[in-house]
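Our working data are protein records whose layout never changes between entries. Instead of coordinates, the fold is spelled out as a row of discrete tokens. Here is such a record, shown just as it appears in the course material:
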Amino acid sequence: MASENEQFAPSGMVSEYLGRLGHTGSTDVTLDTLQALVSAHTRSIAFENIDSLLGRPVVNLGMEALVDKLVRRGRGGFCYEQNGLMGYVLEELGFGVTHVGGRVVWPHDEGAPPSAENHDVLTVTIPGIKTRFVVDVGFGGATPTAPLQLVEDLVQLTPHGAFKLVSVDGGFLLQTQVRGEWRAVYTFTTQPRPRIDQEVGSWYMSTHPTSYFVTGLTAAIVTADERYNLRGCNLTVHGAHATKHRRLEGPEEILDQLSSRFRLDLNDCGDQDVLRARIGEVLDA
């Protein structure tokens, strides 16, 4: 980390990442920088599971592999890739970063049997600020688009909705407000999760035959004031005052949306006929 009188110069891979985001502002270790990076990341790099859908395990979570896929090759990814990349960048810039594990509740009821601890979340510290922050750029349709203070029962507004953390079973439950009601998103603890556990979780979610990343197509991205969520052929647009649903007309229109609205380089996905056929198999999954 640079001294007060020395300007920090990001490494080549971090510079590539900042270029992908279009971030030309400060990289100082401040809350403003953290907020700017989370906002730019969620608008620029789509949540998506095309590799898993095509039977390609996602195992390599090294910085080079993540920069290559999500930055150079114009792709997106799921939580282990998205938060993995964000974690590497924040660490290099000088933030304190800890990976922790989450158990997804959304969109099921809180009383449902627990899921596996298969979600990757970051807790982040900033020099001079006592409060830790939750950073999660990889949850898909309900991703918080701003850092959240790790404070119980505080309603926190983001550009795309309100969130709140409540204490449960020695950890926390993240909730988001949907049409005036608080909905559970996932639980997590602050226990550090080593890299090997992240790799096991990523392998499991990208290969298990019942994983929704293997059995269906999903993608998500935000703009300044809207969320775009795709599941199979169903496109949902959440705005500040209304939600719109649209059924896309088959694989061709889905591919067009993935390329245009979700900003994915589909040429990186391999044989387009194979991808088109696989999408056709999961239109309503």
